[in-house]
Amino acid sequence: AQSVTQPDIHITVSEGASLELRCNYSYGATPYLFWYVQSPGQGLQLLLKYFSGDTLVQGIKGFEAEFKRSQSSFNLRKPSVHWSDAAEYFCAVAGGTSYGKLTFGQGTILTVHP
Amino acid sequence: NAGVTQTPKFRVLKTGQSMTLLCAQDMNHEYMYWYRQDPGMGLRLIHYSVGEGTTAKGEVPDGYNVSRLKKQNFLLGLESAAPSQTSVYFCASSYRSGQGALSYEQFFGPGTRLTVL
To answer: Burial, A79: exposed, middle or buried (Cβ in 10 Å; 0-12, 13-18, 19+)?
Structure first.
């Protein structure tokens, strides 16, 4: 069965600082990987996805993520955080079903200090 | 395009009451999903549908029923609400690519916050 672990429940950074959110997955084959962002009171918005090819993927809002098969990781990064990036971030994995099941991590809450 | 919409946005129920949550999508997507979101647990799949007239159970289906009579709508029902069903409910949809393969990319609605007293 596939699973996703986001080790950090809550991260606080200063505005302008760099950011890395960790995501580890468990899946037997090549996974499809996603990062979603959820602003307070809102639905989930797709930031980026990895299906195959280049292991460094670019997303919206200046985010990027790197797929590392040897470490079973798909960490999300941003070089300079803006106050508007404060939100909850979810990593998800898909694959192995005929109906597109997504398995989500527990989420990481990002707080940005001015 | 409105994308995925959910009705209502908020609801308070008493234990034992019933209600239906409506999800609508205008993207002509084949697949639709209902999730619940609880603190520290991410999103968990309740039920899903791979097409009009078909539904199936997800990870946490107990206490819920669904129907997909029209391709654009996916209804989630609670027949006898319990406090354990207090949660935020999200609907999502997905599509097949041009080659017919499942895209795996899901589009989410804004959510319904349900409180059961």
So the answer is: exposed
Q: How far is B68 from chain A (nearest CA, A)?
A: 15
- B89 in reach of chain A (CB within 8 A): no
Sign of the C-alpha dihedral computed for residues B15, B20, B25 and B28 taken in this order: positive
C-alpha angle A36-B107-A35 in degrees, rounded to nearest 5: 15
pLDDT tens readout for residues B42-70: 899 999 999 999 999 999 999 999 999 99
A34/B110 touch (CB, cutoff 8 Å), yes or no: no
CA distances from B71 to A68, B24, B93 (A): 38, 9, 11
Per the DSSP assignment, residues forming a β-bridge with B21 are B76
Please say if the pLDDT value at position B87 is more than 80: yes
Q: Could you give the 3-state DSSP secondary structure of residue B85?
A: helix
List CB contacts (< 8 A) between A37 and chain B.
none
Beta bridge mates, A46: A36
- A46, pLDDT greater than 80: yes
Q: 3-state SS string over chain A? A: CCEEECCCCEEEEECCCCEEECCEEECCCCCEEEEEEECCCCCEEEEEEECCCCCEEECHHHCEEEEEHHHCEEEEEECCCCHHHCEEEEEEEECCCCCCCEEECCCEEEEEEC
B61 in reach of chain A (CB within 8 A)? no
The whole-chain average pLDDT of chain B stands at 94
